[in-house]
Design goal:
Elements: E1 3-7, E2 10-12, E3 18-25, E4 32-39, E5 45-51, E6 57-59, E7 67-72, E8 77-82, E9 91-99, E10 104-107, E11 111-115
Parallel strand pairs: 2-11
Antiparallel strand pairs: 1-3, 3-8, 4-5, 4-9, 5-6, 7-8, 9-10, 9-11
């Protein structure tokens, strides 16, 4: 059974940094596109970043240059380093695994990030 568990969220001041982690179990990294999404208050869920098997990355325009996605295959963990955080980054952040073989997605339970002074 696929399971994604996010951690690392919290309260941070504007301009601060946080690193989110997503521990994956029950999946094969090479078969999955790993990504982060977020849902800001009153908004639809939106794409943040993803990382493919060859470690190619993609970012949403609002986070380019501030966020970095990476992964540690030995730990089956994906990270999202968030720098220069802004109040508009406040959201619940979700880890997502898209299985190329079955074209299905699994999402974690989410972790709250609040950027406020």
């Amino acid at each position: 059974q696929v399971q994604l568990v996010e951690s690392g969220g919290g309260l941070v001041q504007p301009g601060g940094s946080l690193t989110l982690s997503c521990a994956a179990s029950g999946i094969i990294f090479s078969d999955n596109l790993m990504g982060w999404y977020r849902q800001r208050p009153g908004n639809e869920r939106e794409f943040v970043a993803d990382i493919a098997e060859g470690d190619s990355t993609k970012y949403a325009d609002p986070v380019k240059g501030r966020f970095t996605i990476s992964r540690d295959r030995s730990k089956s963990t994906v990270y999202l380093q968030m720098n220069s955080l802004k109040p508009e980054d406040t959201a619940v952040y979700y880890c997502n695994a898209h299985d190329f073989r079955t074209a299905t997605d699994v999402r974690g339970q989410g972790t709250q990030v609040t950027v406020s002074s």
